[in-house]
Design brief:
The complex is a heterodimer.
Chain A: H1 2-11, E1 20-24, H2 27-45, E2 49-53, H3 58-66, E3 74-78, H4 79-87, H5 108-111, E4 121-134, H6 146-149, E5 159-162, H7 168-175, H8 183-187, H9 190-201, E6 207-210, H10 215-222, E7 227-231, H11 232-242, E8 246-261, H12 269-279, H13 282-287, E9 295-296, E10 329-331, H14 334-353
Parallel strand pairs in A: 1-2, 1-3, 5-6, 5-7, 8-10
Antiparallel strand pairs in A: 3-8, 4-7, 4-8, 4-9
Helix pairs in contact in A: 1-3, 7-9
Chain B: H1 6-48, H2 52-56, H3 58-66, H4 73-89, H5 92-102, H6 107-116, H7 124-131, H8 138-147, H9 154-159, E1 162-164, E2 170-172, H10 180-211, H11 214-229, H12 232-243, H13 248-255, H14 269-292, H15 298-305, H16 310-338, H17 342-347, H18 355-364, H19 369-393
Antiparallel strand pairs in B: 1-2
The chains are: A alpha/beta, B mainly alpha.
């Protein structure tokens, strides 16, 4: 296996030499990073950049570092992978002092959202699991809280939920009235787990379980479900690009960070660091929202006007980081899920099958 | 010139020919070894071998090798030494993951334990437990003892809904967490059902194909083969369009007034069975057809002329001649159904899950490859057992694939 990975890494050497080689996810997200960060960075500094796509950049990072043939010097990773790879010594450590301060002079360490800066990574944006409903199915009262998602009497109809314990159990507890700050503490106890499953039992017969992120907008469009949990970027894109009457409910949303990191032993370390610092400046972080509805991670971006590609839609209402959307929200706990993932998913699968 | 004995010369010539023949097979042999035997061997090895703990925690492993029973101060100090080592080599995550497979909530115990290990003062039995009371859990020590051997049966136990308690006895897992045995049973039951439906639907079609004049049967054959050549995903998603609650079939049923309530035909077992029957049907029809085609109609006619009813003639004369096709088709469909993954994942919802979906879950999401390997190995063993049974009951020589 290791040999195979080494071989893949060797074959993945970039076609042309660039000073910043970016390893990203491709798709709409990769496009957003290219348009908002890579191209303007080259224009501003003259440092060449190249974008390479993979399914999940965490796997090639491990392969490259272990093969001692690191070709990329900036990678886009999930927070969970950053912490794991950093634990295994596969990423360069990043000094927050090297990052640009906010326009008003606040140092980066105080300007980033809590948890956005870790030993080896700088979070660039926040994505969230929210729930959305089809406006045309509820002509009178509309769902507004996470509790409404579980209210079959007031809002009858099928619900879509991601098939898996992660985010589902947290959502059930929040709908049952548990404050976001107590959710993980409660899920560590058997009573808390029972309480979450008991809450899920109340809607089990009406649930359509989805697996791929593209499914929930489709299920809503087909009328298979009246509401569904969904990734906020997906549902925003469906509403914008296809003019669907989908409404996002932010109450009880759960968010995670997406992070820029530098693989251990990366070439052109200075250029990589310059890119890291430049792209996480307040204005440049905010520019990402022009192409994707993920929230910037600096508090100072609140003062920056953020507009969608079409030039008219104000993004403030559509971002997970906007204060009005964060009133009842939960940061997904990486530590909790590495500990309890297998145990709770076993329980979840047994519960599904029963 | 002195002649060689004929026998010797012949043997030499023959062995040369054999070697040359072997050379022709070598590419295929290599291909099978590289793409089939080696991966399966590696998978089987992975299901019993996981050295993440044994490799990175040498001191406590040595203590386990020499001592039985409850951990003493020596055990705790070995553990702390290992945690310091893990901190240095950044392996605490790997070790914690291994233990976490068997005891939930322990990965962070190891990572945070390793982070704080440098500051601990002896006696470690008290200072470590003061740090986190979980370190005193007898079950944790039991799991570490098992994990200190690179070779372990733990993954097979877990795959059979078994676990070890604090004393090392093998016990059933609690009711709420037992999932695999019932899922294995469900997988085999659903596969048998799908095979039976395929046989019932496919037999008449194959018979029709075999008895029609060639021009017509060729046209019909294309109708069988076209879906067979169509992408699996396309066929599965078209079933989603047809079967969903706002789908074509339900709309028609409601519009014509046959039912008022829309039938749930997808995202459950029904959906899995319907879609899989459709996808696997050609695998039943084709072997049946190839067996039925050469059966001459004279036999049945002869039976009829000797006074057999049409049912008797079918049962005593025609059916026995098609058994090799039934056997081949049923075995093919059953084995394919047992390992099916993408269709149940897309249309199975909660109740239409098969064991392969959990194998995929362990491969892709939980990254517990040893567990995935153990589940896959059990599935492989069960299929081989069925194959052996089939061979004993019907005889593998009796099978005709085409």
């Amino acid at each position: 296996m290791k040999k195979l990975l080494v071989l893949t890494a060797a074959l993945m050497a970039p076609a042309a030499h660039a000073d910043v080689t970016f390893l990203g996810w491709g798709g709409a997200y990769g496009r957003a990073q290219t348009e908002a960060h890579l191209k303007p960075f080259t224009e501003a500094t003259g440092i060449r950049t190249v974008m390479t796509d993979t399914d999940n950049p965490a796997a090639p990072v491990k392969a490259m570092v272990e093969a001692n043939n690191v070709t990329a010097n900036i990678v886009s990773l999930e927070q969970a992978d950053v912490i794991r790879l950093c634990d295994e010594g596969l990423l360069e450590e990043i000094d927050p002092a090297a990052l640009a301060p906010a326009p008003d002079g606040t140092p980066a360490a105080d300007d980033f959202l809590p948890g956005a800066l870790t030993d080896c990574g700088v979070a660039t944006d926040v994505w969230a699991t929210v729930f959305a409903y089809d406006d045309s199915r509820f002509p009178d009262a509309k769902p507004t809280t996470i509790a409404d998602f579980f209210d079959l009497e007031k809002f009858p109809g099928k619900r879509g939920i991601r098939k898996g314990a992660k985010t589902t159990l947290e959502m059930a507890l929040m709908a049952d009235g548990v404050p976001a700050s107590d959710v993980y503490e409660m899920l560590e106890t058997p009573e808390g787990i029972d309480r979450a499953f008991a809450k899920l039992d109340t809607i089990k017969s009406e649930v359509v379980w989805w697996e791929a992120g593209a499914q929930p907008p489709q299920l809503l469009a087909d009328g298979e479900v009246v509401m569904s949990t969904v990734y906020n970027g997906r549902i925003f894109a469906a509403a914008m690009n296809e003019n669907k009457p989908f409404v996002t409910v932010w109450d009880g949303m759960q968010y995670e960070f997406e992070v820029y990191a530098i693989p251990k032993g990366a070439p052109d370390l200075d250029d990589a660091m310059e890119f890291m610092s430049w792209s996480t400046e307040t204005q440049n972080l905010a520019n990402l929202t022009k192409y994707i509805s993920y929230g910037p991670t600096r508090k100072s971006t609140a003062a920056v006007k953020k507009t969608w590609e079409d030039g008219t839609t104000d993004m403030e209402a559509h971002l997970p980081t906007s204060p009005q959307n964060m009133t009842n929200s939960l940061e997904t706990s990486f530590e909790f899920w590495v500990d309890y993932d297998s145990e709770l998913n076993e329980r979840f699968n047994a519960w599904l099958a029963s | 010139m002195e002649g060689r004995p004929l026998k010797q010369a012949l043997a030499r010539a023959q062995s040369r020919a054999k070697r040359r023949a072997l050379l022709l097979v070598v590419p295929l042999l290599l291909f099978i070894v590289v793409t089939f035997v080696a991966p399966i061997g590696q998978m089987l090895l992975r299901s019993v071998h996981n050295d993440a703990f044994a490799r990175n925690m040498p001191n406590v492993g040595a203590w386990f090798a020499e001592n039985d029973g409850a951990p003493d101060e020596a055990a705790y100090s070995a553990l702390v030494a290992d945690l310091r080592l893990a901190r240095e080599n950044r392996t605490a995550g790997e070790v914690g993951t291994r233990i976490n497979y068997e005891l939930g909530g322990t990965r962070s115990l190891f990572t945070s334990g390793a982070r704080g290990a440098d500051d601990l003062e002896p006696p470690f039995a008290t200072s470590l437990v003061e740090d986190d009371a979980k370190w005193a859990d007898p079950q944790l020590w039991q799991v570490m003892r098992t994990a200190s051997h690179a070779y372990t049966a733990s993954f097979y136990l877990a795959a059979l809904d078994l676990t070890r308690d604090g004393d090392g006895n093998i016990v059933r897992v609690p009711e709420g967490r037992a999932v695999y045995l019932s899922l294995f049973a469900k997988t085999f039951a659903l596969s048998a059902l799908i095979t039976a439906i395929c046989l019932l639907l496919g037999y008449p079609v194959a018979h029709l194909l075999a008895t029609l004049p060639l021009a017509k049967s060729n046209l019909l054959m294309i109708l069988v083969l076209l879906p067979f050549w169509t992408s699996l995903l396309v066929r599965t998603t078209s079933w989603m369009v047809l079967l969903q609650e706002q789908g074509v079939i339900n709309n028609t049923l409601v519009a014509t007034g046959i039912t008022d309530t829309r039938l749930p035909m997808i995202y459950n077992q029904t959906g899995t069975v319907i879609a899989m029957v459709h996808i696997l049907l050609p695998f039943m029809i084709l072997p049946l057809y190839s067996v039925m085609r050469p059966i001459r109609p004279h036999y049945v006619r002869a039976a009829r002329s000797l006074g057999a009813t049409s049912w008797t003639a079918f049962r005593r004369v025609y059916l026995p001649q098609t058994v090799p096709g039934i056997g081949a088709g049923a075995l093919l469909v059953f084995i394919l159904a047992v390992g099916y993954y993408i269709t149940p994942a897309l249309v199975g919802g909660a109740s239409g899950q098969l064991i392969s979906n959990l194998i995929a879950y362990h491969m892709q999401d939980s990254l517990n490859w040893s567990m995935a390997a153990a589940l896959a190995a059990i599935l492989l063993a069960a299929v081989l057992l069925l194959y052996w049974l089939y061979d004993r009951l019907i005889g593998i020589d009796n099978m005709k694939l085409g």
